[in-house]
DNA sequence: CATGAATGAGGGTTCATTCAT
DNA sequence: CATGAATGAACCCTCATTCAT
């Protein structure tokens, strides 16, 4: 599942799930991401996946079961990759570590925007529009990993947070920055319109600096400077 | 409707909507916010609102009609208040203007968390889980107003953005900061759990600085400073 | 409902149930009696009753609700009639009272064999082939009334039970006699065959004595006399 | 199969049925008895029997086939035992013969209440709740045997039936007495409640007379004597 | 013998909506 | 304005059965 349902069943037959079940998962992810859990009917799923109705129940027990299976697969995969990135850059400087976390999200959204859209739908959509799910539990890992990066950097003296600001707040806003960017990106994507703000195109960032740098530099340095004569 | 459905029909009889229709709107907002449009059935609405089924159709034509009416009411109200705040503080310094925008959102979420939850559900939930709606159109106003605040401040020389950063990006991240905070707030709210990160309690910000200040100072000044010997 | 669903809506509009609901009840009784609860599908019921599917749910909430409604109607009616017969013949001699109870059952089975078949299906069929129902509760009334008849007759000295035999046992066997007769009758009925034993035809009882007399005289006097020289 | 599915495969390896098929039969009997044919699903059976789905079809061809196989096994066994009892007591007096028939039923219900419950479900339940089955055919044997007992006794002058009463009627009521007792017994069994009438406990029959005697003496002698001054 | 995987048809129930009054 | 009654279509799910291996 290293490819977040990229439809490519890896050359080694990868995930040991029968091809039919794979197709169901893939289609379900797409539909849940686009229409949400409630607005997606089992019939739609099986028709799009070209399987018969009972097969869904054979493999996943229920619509709800399918939902949970999918959710766990995706969160597991995300956790796996976040951990891997963190581990790999353990010895790197603070800003590199953050950059790699941001880059990971950029990669994921390019690899499988649908997967991330699904995750966001569950995290940020109405809480009772899908089977019960406590995001805290799953998010704790990602946020925990990033929190540790902050703490280590601070302990090493490599990072000095703004005064009066605890690290949890900074982690929250780190993801806030990331999420906002991705959510806007999804909006433009699904509405098939020109981005009305020049945020995503070529002209967005000055030559040589890609969006990852841009986000990070904003995050670390803030929006800008206030110049008031009276202060 | 100045109170975002606070159940108080203002003393002026305000919106001339019959009490029955008001009840329907109020209940629908609550349910749409909690369960989403698709997962909310017309029967649930009318039962909770204690009206008969055809009444909903009399006043709102259809479930979809009800949705749009609600959406417009809320967005209009938000627009109204954002504009009012902007107008009121036109002569104030840049940071005060921003602070008032943030404060407005804080007020709204206290006044009627449900209303904001509904708006966020539509903005950030799956796009086809509810009747077609292009958020760009509506958001343009809010973001437009804030963009203008930035531009004016820059023109006045009161605000100097980070180099290589366009204003649209800053506005996007301004709302990202706000949204992330509110979304997390909703999570804790709906899951009825202790905030695992100490983000919302008393201890979050140092004495004398409330969350509004906190958010703004982070936004303007960034997360902190990198100290690398090799640089 | 005095006619146990004889399809005749009494001339006074009787039971205040809409005609559609009446038809559903009537058809359901017929099908439940013939095929049992589990083997009868909601689709069958509504098609036979010529109503649309949701109407069943409108009036009865669920298949189970329909079952209970039907059951209660029929048991109530039976209770009503048993009580009425008992009351009416309170001053009559013991054997007359018993005879009237038997006659009541004969009348009911002629009026609406289906109704009785349904009741018997619930009482004597597999216990989990239909929604939970504790027959003891409902049967207590009928058996209670008859038990009282026995007790009064005994107290008046009008009836002397066999030695060593308690009255509960006699009541049980009273209904046993009745039930066996009716169950066999249903068998012949449903299998559309000649009764292989000449139990129900003209020749069964001697001239002038109908089945009611026959049953009662057997019940009171027993099968016959043993004549063994060695005793 | 001499033990009516007592789970003990007789010491002679008896019925040559593979153990798997035995388990299926045993479980099916239990479920059919408790829930009826229609309410019992093939999946329930195979899961409870811990066999795979196609095995049921391999051994019994279909759910219907399983039903018939079971039915025939049980009826054959009952027939066998009724015939055996009749044969064994051919030379005994009339009342002894009847007593042995009653005792046989008591034994069976103690050995395997489930088996008898299944048989009764088929005999007395709704006729179309299970595959077509004409009880007359099978019952003819049992009733025939008992009828013969009556006839012989009458011919020998050992039994004098009540006047005006044919033997078929007496046989019917003989089984009625038995069935009513057993059906009530099942009720108390399945509803796990105290028998509200003291019919089954110690106090039911006077010292030294067990239920078999009690039933028979009632059957032969009737309920009691009417004493009316006016007659 | 025995299995995992697959199926067409139908199970009970609810949907958003509308009719006549 | 307001209602009880009615509807076609769709909901999620399970049925008995069979295929290939």
Helix content of chain A: 55-70%
Q: What's the overall average pLDDT of chain A, rounded? A: 84
Largest Cβ-defined interface: A-B, 74 and 75 residues
What is the multimeric organization of the chains shown? homotetramer
Largest sheet of chain A: none
- Give the low-confidence spans of chain A: 7-14, 193-197, 202-208
Number of helices of chain A: 9
What's the β-strand tally of chain A?
A: 2
- As a whole number of angstroms, the C-alpha radius of gyration of chain A is 20 Å
CA-to-CA gap between the ends of chain A?
56 Å
Strand content of chain A: under 5%
CA-based shape of chain A: elongated
Class from helix and strand fractions of chain A:
mainly alpha
H/E element sequence of chain A: HHHHHHHEHHE
